[in-house]
Amino acid sequence: MRDSSGLDARKHRSRFCERREWTSEKKGHTVTSKSFLELTSMRAEVNLPGGNDFSDVTELFVNAAAEMPPGEVLFRDGFTLHDAMSAFEIGEPRLDSGMVIEGQQRPPFDPWAPLLPQEICWIIDRSFAYEMLFHAGNPLAHTVFTSLYTLVIHELHPDMIPYGDELDAHLISVVLRAAISGMLKCCDLTWRELSTGHMYDTEDWQSDKCETSLLEGMSVPNALIGLDNATGWLIRGRQVPEPWMTALVARLNLRKVLLQLMDASVFRSPSNFMQLIGIARNHLKTVQSYPAPEPPEGSVAHLAFDPYIARKLNSSVPIRVIPPPPIAETWKAVEHMLDGWEELRLLSLTTPIATWETAGLLRAWLPDPPLRSPYIRSATQSVFYDGLLVLNKFSPQWVFDRFFYETLGISQQSVVQFMEQHTTEAWHPWGDLQRGHFKARRPVLMTEYIRALWFNPGRRRRFLMKMLVELHGYYAQMVEIQASIPALPVTDIMAHLPSCVLLWRLSMVRDVVLSGFQLELYTAEERSFAYWYLGQVIEAHLKCLDRLLLAVQPESTQARELRFQHSFLTALQAMAVPMFLLSMPLMSFAWTQMNANFRRRYKWAFVGAYSLSTIPVVAQPDFDLFMADCTRALKGRGASGDTFSPAGSFELAKTILQRLVDERAVGGYAGLWTEDRIRLLQCLATASEQLSTDARIPATAADLPSFDEGLLKWDPATSPSAWFPVVDDAGKERRRNKRARADGAQVA
Prior knowledge:
3 domains
C-alpha cells in the first residue's frame, strides 16, 4: 500500500517547485523564481521539517532581482564563484531529474497507436538523426533511447497485435519494428567496436546503456530477415499507396545495407564491401528523393519521442535535451560515414606505412571531410592492427622492416648483415634495439603512431608528446650504434641510420606545434613563439632531409617522397618565419610571465626521461634563443637582415606550393590520397597568396613597426589553412574592444 502522507508530500513538492514569472515595471526585466505562495495554504495538510512557521519572501527576492541587469551575479563577502559551483556539485542535478514540470507532462505512450505511412517515414528519419547524434559522441539516453519504440521493441511482435485496423497494426509490427530493430542492432555493433579500447569512453563516445537492451541477443541475420520481410510485405501487399511505399522500402533498404556494412569484414571480401557501399549510396539518394513531412502538431507521431526519457532509465548523467539536427544534416552524416567506410576499404588494400601516415595526417589537417566518427576511426585502427596481425596478414616484425625500407630504401635484413660485419663490440646493439622496439609483443614505434593518427585531436596531440621521449631513446641508440662502426662516406646509406629515426621524430614535433593552432590552444602571447619554434623544427628537418637525399637512389620512391617533403617544409617555413615577426607585437614582453607560460606549454619537451640519455635532443624549444631573436628583430637586425620581406616570404611560399600543385609533385607515397594532398597544398597556397597580396602586410623589414597586429584573425573554421591567420579589419575592432574591457577590469 502507498503511504498517503508520502503522496501528499510529493504533490506538495511538485506545487512547491512550480515556476512563476514576474515582470519589473521599473527595469522591464523578466525574473524567474520559485514560488512559496503555496506553502501557507498547505500548512494544515503537511507537516514540514522544521515546523510550519515560514514567511513568504517572494516579494523581497523579486524586488531585489528587478534592480539587477541580466547576467549580474551578487556574492556576499567570502562566497566566491568556486563556492557556488561546489554547491551545484553537491546538489547533484540528477536528484531533480524525476521532477516533471508542467511543460514536460506528456500523455501515456501507446505503441499501437495508428500511424500513417508518412508518419512512420518521419519516425524512421528522426531515429536516423538520433543515431547519428550517438555516433557523434552523445549518450544513448539522450539520443537513440528517446525513441520510445526502442524501449518497447519486444512488445511489437505481430502475435501481440491488438484488435483494430490490420493495416495500421502491420505497419507498426512489421515495418516500424524491423526499422527500429535494425537501428538497435547497428548501435549494438557500434558499441562492440567502440568498446575494444581504440576510442576513449566519455571522451570519444558514451558507453552507458542505461541497462536497456540493444538487442544483444538477436543475431544480425535475424535482424536482416526482419528487414527483408518488411520490404516484402510492402511490395507484395501494396496496401500502402505511393509514394510512401517507395519511401518506406528505401529506408528499410538503407538500414539493411548499413547493418551489413557494420557486420562485414573488409578483408574477407573487399569487392563485396565496396559493392555494399555503392548500394548504400543509391538507397540514400532514393531516401533523399522522398522526404517525410513534419507531422501536424496534434499527431501521435510526436509522442514517439520523449527527450526526458532518461528520468525513467537507469542513467548516470543529468538530463540534457539534444534537439535533432535538420534531416539534411542527418543524411550528410550518413554520407560521411559511407565515405569513411570507403576510405577504410582503400586503406585495407594499402601496404606502405607511409601512405597510411599520409592518409591519417590529411584527415587531421583538412577541414573537409571533417573528423571521422569514433566508430569509423576505431574500425580503421582495428583494420591496421588487431592486436595480432598488421593488415590481417603481417606480423609486427614486418613494420620494423618497413620503417627502414620506406625511409632509406633498404631492408632491415640488410642493416642487420651490415652490423654483423662491421660491429667490433662483443655485444650486438642492433639486437637490443630490435628487442626494445617491442614491449610485451606490442609494437610501440610505428604501429602505435599510425593508430594514433585516428585519435581525436586532443588525444592525438597528447600521445605524440609522450611518444617523442621514446623516439629520442631510439635515436640515441641509433647514434650509439653508428659510433660503434667505422666512419662511412655521406653517400653511403648506412651512414644515415640515426637520421631515419630523427626524420620521424621531427615530423611528430612539427605536428604537435601545428595542432596547437588547430585546437586554438595558443594565446595571443604564445603565437609568436609557436611560429618561431616551428621554423626551428623545420630547419632541423630540412637538414635531415638534405643528408638523406645524398644517399638514397635519385629516382626511387623514397627520393620522390623526400623531395616533396623538402619542398613542402620549405614553403611552410617561408610562412612561419614572417608570422613570427608579425605576431611578435602581441606579446607583453613580461619576461617572467612569458617564461612561465613557455614552461607550461612546452613541458612535454622537458620531462625527466630526456636526462637519461647522453645524446642531446634535436630541435628543443629554447626560450632564451627566442628572446634573443626577438631583440635582434626589434633592433632591425633580424636573422635575414634588413632585406627580409614578410610579403616576399609569403610570395615565395605561394610559388613553391603552386608549383607542386601544377606539376602534381606529391611525393612517392601519396597513392590514392593524391587529390587530398593536392587540396592541402592548394589551401596553403591560398592562405599564403592572401597574406602576400594584402597591402597591409609589410613589404620590408623597415615597415614591420607600422603593422597593426590587430588585423590578424586566427579562426580555423574560416581561414584557408587552420595554421595561419587572415588579415581582417573586424579582428582589429575585436582586439580594441578586448583591450578596453581589460583596461576597465584593471581599473575596477
